[in-house]
Design brief:
Length: 1293
């Protein structure tokens, strides 16, 4: 029985990154087996069944377990252990908990300012513990977080709102305090503060969640919080979920306040409906408002108003029954009332009203028939069923069990544990989400099983483990199995069973370790996860088995076991026992030599160092500096005599640096530093830091800071400067760089680095320049004047030939010349400040020397600045220099960027009387020169040339030279006919131009309309019918005609624009302004004289039956075909595209050739347009997609025997290809020729692909695309030759 286990690629990539493994080593590992135990967990009673194989799961877990002994090296580098960054999803249980504890430990070691980092780690730790329903540990972290929380954290901390929402679902005491504190802080922000509105919005949400938590606890304070929120609801112009607040009042029987909230919510949604009349989401909100109001009025026996609101809800809901509208229901967290429920409400209102009109009380004595009872029953229909699992229900149940275990009164837990078993049996390892937090039952069930076992409820623990095991044996839960088996082992040993270790783990990779090694690693994992009692139990069992083995001397496992026990005792502050075991391990090491014992000696030596380092770190944390120092000095003496030698291999630049060989040097340096022995610490810290660059991945920031402080104290200013310079770089290249982005880490340490560099003898100018650059970059936004001074100083320190000077000069050029008086100097000194003109001159000069092919922009910036200063002659000279230096290399990178924008060559404010002055003549000649330069560099159909011509057009328009502008525009438009329409990867060069013309002022409306009509005429000639760009031009033309009072022409332009857009179904942001303008024109022009305007649905509603791979199930085929035929009025929409792709994929083996041909032609028409259905520009990849469709179409014609049509479409496909094609298009062309049966044509394109320049073939042969073509052509030798030359493909084929 075999099963394939799958893990997301991102997770595997993280593991590979940490390990330094290559793809080949990952695939070359042995395929190991994972065993099963019997369902009753009585492992001694029955033999172990044949093991199940979970290959990838075993490799993943084996790597995790193998690195348990070397956790210190991860901490030294500030590295997230093993890449387990998603603790919520991986079913890696104890490793996830261990990661959280490691990260917390490392966060405390990171340099200040680390407040943001600590808060983040405390948030993540609290979430992890809550996921495991470890409420005590979670509240401990939440208490620390509450004490450090600030208003800025509430306003700006990423995902704080999702975090608070998750806390409200968990409903612990710590969660409630966090919400109260966060809401108070958010409301403390005063009006006028930049964060005022954001804080107010979050305060509203926090208070609502607080109300829900208090209601669940039946705490009367919920009404107080609700009243407070109601009173401050107008505090800021931010959205408050008034319906939700109204529901809170309704549950508290405060019907008047509930009515007020519902009415204000209705007014808000009615305003939105006027702005977005066709938005289904807005209309559904109106349904909710009217339904709630109707219910509330029913409860107050106001039947007439209740009936009115119910009727409105029914009317709106009746218009939302189409599939497109219903697709919006997923946007709502709550259940929306359907027509049946609204009709039932109307019936109940009528019955109550009839009873009242007949003089009867409303069903006296029968709650279900009273108005209150009816309303409650109807509202209950909108709540999830009691049997459904929610975050709240699960957390409530787990808190109940936690409290029962904590009472320790001997009562049976069968009832509460039975509920847990039912849920685990039903949902297994399933995950469900709350915002960014995805929740799984597995980790909390495992924690509960451990709790029960620790409290003596072994049978209840076994029952839960049994249910989890059933899911762990499935492919999606394979990683969970070893953790379940570990708990089975603990329970068995606690019952007094012996000899069970090998049987429980039979068939798993853990079985290869031996019983002592297996138990020891489990103990290490329990220590890392914080389960110290269980760790001690594992270590005691391992020590007992080791003593029973009778082996003399010091086995590797025995040495590591004593060190692990020493670390455990140190964690519990039992120092005598700790160092007794450490001394015993050291003594055993002295009698153990390489080659005299079994085991991996290199791995042992690495683990030995890391465990000693762990023990020293624990001693420093426990104020045992002298004890740690004495022990470590003794260890270092032994290491000098070759005991447990280990040498890191840092020769591979692709691997992360391994600092294991110097980890004890780092520990000894830290011990000396903590005991004020800087001179003794410095050489050890220098050796430990030598392998690391400050900007390398996972550089040890804390160690750099320690080295800097010791070097300063010892007077080694050179090393101090380098280390202080490294600290912020290491912090900002660490996994927690985001938490340091807005901190003052650069401002804190770089001045210290600069001070140290100033004291260096001899001076190091290059280092001082780097420090000034880094400090200047950190001050750019906050203190630009000081940044300018620092950049100037950095520039002056560099040799004139240094290429970095050009970059610095360009930075200086854009900085302000002076700062505000509020800026306090970070560094002392009055260095000369370079003027902007000098900086730009220096930048252009150095760019010409170092980057001649890309110096054009530097000369343009200089000339434009000179223009602003009135230096016309110098500006003209430098403009000409810019044009002359513009190269083909720069053209290849500029895409549609213009060589010389027209606004760079005119001085503002514009002087129209200067139209014949010297300045105008210079500017005109400069722009004409730019056009001529591009004529030399590129072909006439290149969009860059058109873009540059349009700059000349806009220049003439700015100076009111309309005849010249129109002549130049004609030349630019002529290029549309010559452009390679299908393969141009540039955005349309006329879109921005048309939009700019549409903004002309009132006196220039006539020329603006003429220009836009000229552009439109060209687009109608050269673009396909209903091209999306024509819609934009029609819309701009409509705006111009409307402003000119030509409402009939405006009306026609708007209608044509909307008609084209309806083919594509763009977002509302595109069509909404046009529809509003059309409504305005119709009101002026009179709708009676024209037919109804086309309206565009605002939501496409992608088909829900198409899965993430774009595939259809057989049962959905007919429905998809009907949906596609119904969407023909929007032929180029994303919905049509997805339906076509799914249908074509489904029909790949179909004999319905006529249908396939129709669908393929429709899909090609979408791909043929230069913009795709989402409005994005088609790239070469999309062109390759079009060729693949042509290939499929040709193949269909060949299958149905219509070879003439096959040849026709093959020629049509190839006619749209450019002369210069990349590898992708050439192989696609070869496949089309193959499909058409033209072997010589296929050979021609295949040879062209194979003979491309080496720079264009980087990695292309690895895919095997060309090899497959040669094989299809019968040229196997040619294919094998390519395989042999590309060994990666050959080894994995």
């Amino acid at each position: 029985m075999q099963s394939c286990f799958r893990i997301p690629i991102s997770f595997l990539a993280a593991l590979l990154l940490v390990s330094g493994w290559h793809a080949s080593s990952w695939g070359a590992g042995p395929r190991l087996a994972t065993g099963m135990v019997d369902s009753n967990f009585n492992v001694a009673a029955e033999p172990v069944p044949e093991p199940i194989t979970y290959p990838l799961a075993d490799e993943t877990l084996q790597y995790c377990f193998d690195n348990l002994d070397t956790q210190s090296i991860f901490l030294l580098r500030g590295q997230p252990a093993l890449g387990l960054t998603d603790y919520q999803a991986r079913n890696l249980d104890l490793f996830a908990r261990q990661l959280i504890r490691w990260n917390l430990k490392e966060a405390y070691r990171m340099p200040e300012p680390r407040q943001a980092l600590l808060k983040k780690q405390r948030r993540e730790a609290a979430v992890c513990y809550l996921m495991q329903c470890d409420f005590k540990s979670a509240d401990e972290q939440l208490g620390l977080l509450e004490a450090s929380l600030m208003a800025s954290d509430v306003a700006r901390a990423p995902q704080f709102e999702d975090f608070a929402r998750f806390l409200s679902l968990a409903d612990t005491d710590g969660s409630l305090r966090i919400l109260e504190r966060a809401a108070t802080l958010a409301l403390s922000v005063e009006p006028g503060h930049p964060d005022f509105e954001e804080c107010t919005r979050k305060a509203f949400r926090l208070m609502l969640w607080q109300i829900h938590m208090l209601e669940r606890r039946s705490n009367p304070s919920s009404l107080r919080v609700a009243n407070t929120l109601f009173e401050i609801r107008a505090r800021a112009n931010v959205y408050l979920p008034l319906v939700e607040l109204g529901d809170c009042f309704s549950r508290q029987h405060q019907l008047k306040r509930a009515q007020q909230c519902y009415l204000e919510g209705l007014a808000f949604d009615e305003k939105r409906a006027r702005d977005y009349p066709k938005s289904p989401a807005t209309l559904y909100s109106l349904v909710i408002d009217n339904f709630r109001l109707s219910i509330n009025c029913l409860r107050q026996n106001d039947f007439s108003r209740a009936a009115s609101y119910a009727e409105k809800a029914h009317t709106i809901l009746s218009g939302l029954q189409d599939p497109e509208s219903k697709s919006c229901l997923s946007q709502f967290d709550e259940k929306i009332p359907d027509l049946a429920l609204v009709n039932e409400l109307r019936v109940n209102i009528k019955q109550c009203a009839d009873a009242r009109s007949e003089g009867l009380s409303v069903a006296p004595g029968v709650y279900e028939l009273s108005s209150e009872g009816r309303a409650s029953l109807l509202m209950a229909r909108l709540r999830p069923p009691a049997s459904s699992l929610t975050h709240e229900s699960w957390f409530d149940l787990m808190q109940q069990v936690d409290a029962e275990i904590g009472r320790r009164d001997g009562r049976s837990l069968d009832k509460s544990v039975g509920k847990v078993l039912q849920i685990v049996k039903k949902y297994g390892l399933a995950r469900f989400g709350a915002g960014n937090y995805w929740f799984s039952i597995y980790p909390s069930s495992m924690h509960l099983a451990r709790q029960l076992s620790d409290s003596g409820y072994l049978s209840e623990s076994d029952n839960i483990l049994s249910e989890i095991r059933e899911y762990a044996l499935r492919e999606d839960g394979a990683t969970a199995l070893p953790f379940v088996l570990s708990e089975v082992l603990i329970n068995s040993l606690r019952r007094g069973a012996s000899g069970q270790v090998s049987q429980v783990f039979a068939g798993t990779f853990l079985n290869n370790l031996g019983e002592v090694g297996r138990l020891r690693r489990l103990g290490v994992l329990y220590v890392g996860a914080g389960y110290w009692d269980r760790a001690r139990f594992c270590f005691e069992q391992a020590l007992q088995l080791d003593c029973q083995s009778g082996e003399r001397g010091g086995s590797l496992e025995r040495i590591l076991l004593h060190l692990d026990i020493a670390n455990l005792e140190a964690s519990c502050h039992r120092w005598e026992q700790s160092y007794a075991h450490a001394e015993q391990a050291l003594n055993l090491t002295l009698v153990t030599r390489k080659g005299e014992t079994t085991g991996d000696w290199s791995r042992f030596c690495k683990s030995y160092r890391c465990k000693i380092s762990d023990l020293v770190a624990a001693g420093l944390l426990g104020k045992q500096e002298e004890r740690a120092r004495c022990f470590l000095e003794k260890v270092m003496v032994h290491l000098q005599h070759g005991v447990t030698e280990y040498h890191s291999d840092n020769s591979d630049p692709m691997k992360d640096i391994d600092g294991t060989d110097s980890i004890l040097e780092a520990s000894l340096g830290e011990v000396y530093a903590r005991t004020d022995r800087a001179q003794l610490a410095l050489p050890h810290l220098r050796n430990a830091l030598s392998p690391f660059r400050p900007d390398c991945s996972y550089a040890p920031a804390a160690l750099f800071l320690l080295g800097a402080d010791c070097a300063t104290a010892a007077g080694d200013y050179a090393f101090a400067a380098k280390c202080y310079h490294a600290v912020p770089l290491a912090c900002c290249s660490s996994p927690w760089s985001f938490e340091y982005q807005d901190s003052q880490v650069y401002e804190r340490y770089l001045p210290e680095a600069l001070a140290g560099a100033e004291k260096m003898t001899p001076p190091d100018k290059a280092l001082k320049s780097k420090i000034c650059q880094a400090l200047g970059a950190s001050l750019l936004q906050k203190k630009p004047a000081q940044a300018r001074k620092l950049y100037s100083r950095a520039c002056a320190l560099l040799p004139k030939t240094d290429p970095t000077r050009a970059q610095l000069a360009a930075e200086i050029a854009v900085l302000p010349l002076s700062g505000t008086t509020a800026e306090n100097d970070i560094v002392a000194g009055n260095e000369p400040v370079v003027s902007r003109l000098d900086a730009l001159t220096e930048s252009a000069r150095l760019a010409q020397i170092n980057f001649p092919s890309f110096s054009s922009s530097a000369w343009i910036e200089l000339a434009s600045h000179e223009l602003g200063l009135g230096l016309w002659k110098q500006a003209e000279q430098h403009f000409r220099q810019a044009i002359a230096s513009f190269s083909k290399e720069q053209l290849a990178y500029c895409n549609s960027d213009v060589l010389l924008p027209y606004y760079k060559v005119v001085a503002y404010p514009l002087n129209l009387s200067a139209a014949r002055a010297e300045q105008f003549i210079i500017a005109e000649a400069t722009l004409i020169s730019a056009v001529e330069r591009l004529k030399i560099l590129c072909s006439s159909d290149n969009p860059c040339l058109s873009y540059q011509r349009l700059q000349l057009v806009q220049f003439y328009l700015a100076y009111r030279r309309y005849p010249q502008a129109l002549d130049c525009l004609d030349q630019a438009l002529a290029s549309l006919e010559r452009q390679d329409y299908s393969c141009v990867a540039f955005p349309d060069v006329f879109d921005d131009f048309v939009l700019a013309i549409g903004r002309f002022d009132q006196p220039r409306l006539e020329i603006a309309s003429a220009i836009v009509q000229k552009v439109l005429a060209a687009e109608l000639r050269f673009y396909p019918a209903d091209d999306r760009r024509q819609a934009l031009t029609y819309a701009v033309l409509g705006d111009l005609k409307k402003r000119a009072g030509l409402y009939s022409e405006a009306h026609d332009a708007y209608r044509r624009s909307l008609k084209i857009y309806s083919c594509y179904l763009p977002g509302m942001s595109v069509t909404e302004p046009i529809e509003k303008s059309l409504d305005d024109v119709e009101s002026r022009f009179g709708s009676s004289s024209s037919s109804h305007a086309p309206r565009i649905p605002n939501a496409e509603g992608l088909p829900p039956y198409i899965n993430s791979d774009g595939k259809l199930l057989e049962s959905d085929y007919e429905r998809a075909l009907e949906d596609y035929d119904a969407a023909r009025e929007h032929p180029y929409s994303l919905r049509s595209e997805k339906l076509l792709d799914a249908l074509i994929a489904y029909l790949k083996d179909s004999n319905d050739y006529s249908l396939l041909i129709r669908l393929l032609n429709d899909r090609i028409e979408i791909a043929r347009r230069r913009q795709d259905a989402a409005g994005c520009v088609v790239s070469q990849t999309a062109t390759g997609t079009k060729l693949a469709l042509y290939e499929r179409l040709v193949g269909v014609y060949v299958k149905c025997g219509d070879r003439s049509s096959a040849v026709k479409y093959a020629m049509a496909a190839l006619s749209e290809l450019p002369d210069e094609m990349p590898f992708l298009l050439l192989t696609a062309a070869a496949r089309i020729k193959l499909a058409a049966g033209d072997l010589s044509g296929a050979t021609y394109f295949a040879e062209r692909a194979e003979n491309l320049p080496a720079s264009a073939l980087n990695g292309c042969f690895v895919t095997g695309e060309l090899q497959q073509i040669w094989r299809a052509l019968g040229q196997v030798e040619r294919s094998d030759k390519l395989d042999a030359e590309n060994s990666f493909f050959h080894s994995t084929r």
